[in-house]
Specification:
By secondary structure, the protein is mainly α. The protein contains 4 helices and 2 strands; from the N terminus they run ββαααα.
Length: 148
Amino acid sequence: MDSVHIEPVADDASWGGIPYKPKSKWSALFPYELLIGLPIDLYTAFVAQCFWNWFAAPALRLPEISFLQMLGLLWMMALLIRSSAKVEMRALVFLVSITRLCVPPERNKVLGELMDSRLLDELMMGLAQIGQNTLTLALGFGLHLLIS
């Protein structure tokens, strides 16, 4: 009878044979995320403030809101949403682990490089958010002119 050799399953310290180094909370991309994310947050707060003052305040008979109050509200909502995003992040890490186990070892390096190039992704998502906010602001302003 032939003996059967079973390969050990990769543990938490490696993904498909490639050592896994957990990224610190303060990654090397943090300054770039701050440079990209903060102006987008400020612009989003401006758009949300305009919408609140144009539509919500008159319709609900509420006072208008200042820019800093809207920024604080958006950041508070982001904190609440971010806590539920941790569960999604764990699921994503699990899926990435499974993907790395399915990819041949010679292609794992390429997969790792694709997953680690986040700066361009952050920039593209930031530009898309600015475009979306600008379009929303223009449409909202047009609606505001029609209503008033």
